[in-house]
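Minutes, methods subgroup
Present: GH (chair), OT, SY

1. OT presented the first of two proteins processed in the latest run. Sequence and structure tokens recorded below as shown on screen.
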Amino acid sequence: MTTTPKPAHIAMFSIAAAGHVNPSIEVIRELVARGHRVSYAIPAAYADKIAETGATPVIWNSALPTDEDPDAWGTELIDNIEPFLADAVQALPQLAAAFEGDEPDLVLHDITAYPARVLAHRWDVPAVSLSPTLVAWTGYEEEVGEPMTAELRASERGKAYYDRFRAWLDENGIDEDSDRFVGRPRRSVVLIPRALQPHADRVDEAVYTFVGACQGDRSATQGTWTRPAAAEGKKVLLVSFGSTFTKQPAFYRACLEAFGDLPDWHVVLQIGKFTDEAELGAVPANVEVHRWVPQLDILRQADAFITHAGTGGCQEGLATGTPMVAVPQAVDQFGNADMLAALGVARHVPMAEADAATLREAVLALVADPEVAARADRIRREMATEGGTRQAADLIEAELSGAELSGARTA
């Protein structure tokens, strides 16, 4: 016998970054469809995208660098983590005021949304992380966390950062160590396939549940891609570095050199908003160039994918069974590229080695290998069983009702 929780007020918190907002979109849409009132705390740049789900955008002002200025994040670990704490400190009063008198029954939060966990503690309501990327496994701190932060903790700037974090947590009545506060949620619905998770067999299943890619019908907002008549009978290659890491004219020229005028290939090249098309030079007849493309729709028709190995692109490639050449640019993309290669469905090509000859050889070898195709199809089928959007919503409703998953809403 299953139960359906009564409609509740759910508050979701995230930052203005595509890789953090997009994975949650279909989950939010599903929760609204099930009758819940969802307030989504987000900076104004993403308000329209949130409103399309039926959720109510709750606008707050962020001090974080935006997608428009990716270089502002700097190059060192401290450059990457300091802004999140500074933003949390200034955002908390804004968000507390925005929800005053309308506190939610449940808090959902992105991994970067530190104020959300503080507010859930203050309101005494459950908090659930919606993780758009890999999560910590048993032993993570000793194997990765402590070695990565040891030098930082010994530096003056690092000590000051940890002191500020400790003071902020103390001020808000939270005893937890700052690294565990950031990396160890009470409960997490993980919006990536288990196949992308390092040491998946050592992840605490009582805390983390993998639901895989949460993909819906995006045609209304993103459009679709139609294979040109000139591409009939040809293999299709998509080249896309997402929305942020697209200031890459030399790389795009290497792709044109590698695949331009190959008689059996049609290439879709997304260059984003940071590269001028004039910088590409002559564009071969078998290449179409766009600032933005409906990536998932193309991948459903593609034979290969050159990607920067962002988590969203990785799981879309896996979900469609598309062999990938991963050319990572930053942060978790290097680990994602290694995972794809270990799965046997991709090549990891460092950016410094991504010349025309290397890219061409990698793509052609992957597509010609029947074992790659078999592995990609197996992973695609495994992902289809993870539950996706509906499973994520069921898990969230189980938290609302305080029931076990078996007592959550089912179709």
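2. SY then presented the second protein from the same run.
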Amino acid sequence: MAGFYTDATTYDIASALADTESEAYRLLIRDIDAIAAHLQELKDAGVPVLFRPLHEAEGGWFWWGAKGPEPAKQLYRLLYDRLVQEHQLHNLIWVWNSEKPEWYPGDDVVDIVSVDVYPEAGDHSPLAARYTNLSELVKDSKIIALAENGSIPDPKLMKEQDVHWSWFCTWTGGFLRDGTHNDVAFLKEVYHSAEVITLDQLPKWSWL
């Protein structure tokens, strides 16, 4: 199950995309179509999907980013075209997951920009610089999200510093339970904050 890591697979995305007649490219399309079948089930049920493919590509630790920005962007656009144009999956909200301009696939295929940040345990800063990077990337024209985090940014500091993460998604395990990244008192403060909207406060969402 670790085949998505660069060092656990020999799959070469640049080579696959360079030859659309190759077995590697055929397998790529096969997998995209398999994903489409599951997303179709959600479409049929009227469920909109925050879809964040090819996350953390610029890190290089996943195969989709191992060959640099151009193959990663090409793959993202292929995925978009295949799912939206070929499979007519219009229930997808496309979330890009990098703040680096050279990796950005384009405004026409991105709805939301995001970044994953894991500060030191107990560091609840609002991550203002990372937010600004994303805002500048899209000229303040798109929703900005903290797609993954360890320590949760303090809502009070976010408000003070004009940082508006549309959502945060704290990683599981110790990040929530070890008492050092986010202690219980802080978690209660965050989820009872007037600045934080929780699931029970959201209206019912449907793309239908």
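Chair's summary of item 2: The chain is about 35% helix and 10% strand.
Next meeting: continue with the remaining queue.
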